[in-house]
Amino acid sequence: MAAGRFAPSPTGPLHIGSLYTALASFLDARAEGLPWRLRFDDLDAPRNQPGAESRILRSLEAHGLHWDGPVERQSERLDLYQAALEKLQRRAKLFHCTCSRKALAGSPIYPGHCRGQIAPVPNAAIRVRVDDAAVEFIDLVQGRQHARLGATVGDFIIKRRDGPFAYQLATAVDDGNPNIVRVLRGRDLLANTPRQLHVMALLGLPAPTYAHIPVLLNTAGQKWSKQTEAPTVNDHKHLANIRACLMLLGLQPPDLDLDTLIEWASAHWSLDRIGKRNQAFDPSLS
Questions:
Q1: What is the mean pLDDT of residues 75-80?
Q2: pLDDT band per the 50, 70, 90 thresholds, residue 284
Q3: Strand, coil or helix: 189
Q4: Residue 74 neighbours by CB distance under 10 Å
Q5: Staple partner for 3: which of 35, 76, 217, 247, CB 3.0–4.6 Å?
Q6: Which secondary-structure segment (H or E) carries 4?
Q7: Which one, of 228, 181, 230, lies nearest residue 20 by Cα?
């Protein structure tokens, strides 16, 4: 069944920035009459925080954001990523890269040093060739997007040298599932989308419709995130949190209880209300 999705990483509890994105994703799916799926992007095991997944689930429920179907985890889908990797290998789109970070320092675009290294070698990452790939798509918030991967990032990693599948491959496989028809996420991930669309195209997967919303910034102009010490949302203030997020999303919420407010917001949701630029938010003022 066609659906939207929210895909947090279990690297810490829900903060105001992630709640804002979760709410937008939920309302967008509901407004389109779609189920809302929940997937944990948990492949980077060293960064996963014990107990974070259960805390995120509790916070979503406390804020009236109830997902449909079972919770999915990328760590339980490794066979799908391996099958995708093997398909790309058969199509001669991959090579093994032994370049160190030091060797690539100062090169934002991968220079292609290891392109001829098709056979597996020890201690190597796996990169996918981009050649002269041009990627175009319409983002429902940011508008028409165009990227030439060879001129922006070059051949990029899809399996890390330390073993895990890279974000670009795993997300391309998961969001290339025909059931995922709508992906709403933060504008900070917009630069990843052409790479993921490139992988989807190579694998013959259908692309979802994308909407990249502005991210919330702290008073220092940094994105609210775990790295910038974003405060954990207070689940006991669920109504105030939802009202604050709705106003940031361009809505003027009436004085309603939580469940009724969520229903009202779903009925009044419109991406046209959302601007393109990131916006500052100080939780202490909410």
A1: 98
A2: low
A3: helix
A4: 23
A5: 35
A6: strand 3-6
A7: 230
